[in-house]
Amino acid sequence: MFSTPKSLQRRTGRFGVDRYEYLKQLLNEYEHDSANNESKLQILANFANFSYDPINYNHLRQLNIIDLFLDCLQMHTEDDFVHYALAGLCNICADEANCQIVFHKTPSIVISLVKCLFSTRFDVVVNALLTLMFLCDFKEQIKVDLRQRNEIRQCIEKYSQSKDKRLANMAQLFLQDYLS
User: Fold this and answer.
1) Burial of 92 (0-12, 13-18, 19+ CB in 10 A)
2) What pLDDT was estimated at residue 75?
3) Sign of torsion, CA 112 93 44 26?
4) CA end-to-end span of the chain, whole Å?
5) 20 to 30 A from 30, CA-CA: which of 43, 62, 96, 150?
6) Total-model pTM
7) pLDDT tens-digit readout, 123-134
């Protein structure tokens, strides 16, 4: 469910920490206080959840959380970090301004997403597909580039035959809207 400023005020009270300050505290903990990967992973998962709600987009942009997602996606080899970074990117790329930031910061993002298409983790594949859809809608050139890569088409065609209906339907939609 999406939040409104009024509902956030009601939930936090007059003297509660506002959303921006809370996210800032989480980022500070991620960057400075978390010595172990388990804590960082939990914070990254929280950011991915916060990126679902458009009311948080501006805060996440101001705090450069998009950079954090991009860095984790490109620098971590642990599946869970990739999963949460990709989930956060997928959520935040529903907004065109965020897509623009993603492309400006990391023009090679498509390469990272394509690598994720070949993951053995269902959630990584689905989030990579959906993020690519958002980015294709934002920048037409991505569709042109993807159409030229036969291994991507073969991968998506394989997914379109999956027994998992969610993956099969998403892959069929991807083939129809972005690779035809």
Assistant:
1) buried
2) 87
3) positive
4) 34
5) 96
6) 0.86
7) 999 999 999 999
Q: Which domain holds residue 38?
A: 5-141
Q: Is position 179 within any domain? A: no
Q: Are 119 and 125 in contact (CB under 8 A)?
A: yes
pLDDT computed for residue 6 by the predictor: 61
Count of domains observed in the chain:
1
Residue 158 belongs to some domain of the structure: no
Tell me the pLDDT tens digit for each residue of 6-27. Answer: 654 555 445 455 899 999 999 9
* Mean pLDDT across 97-110: 90
Is residue 171 in some structural domain?
no
Residue 102 lies in a domain: yes
Tokens of 94: 């529903």
Cα–Cα distance, 73 to 172 (Å, whole number): 25
What CATH number is attached to the domain comprising 52? 1.25.10.10
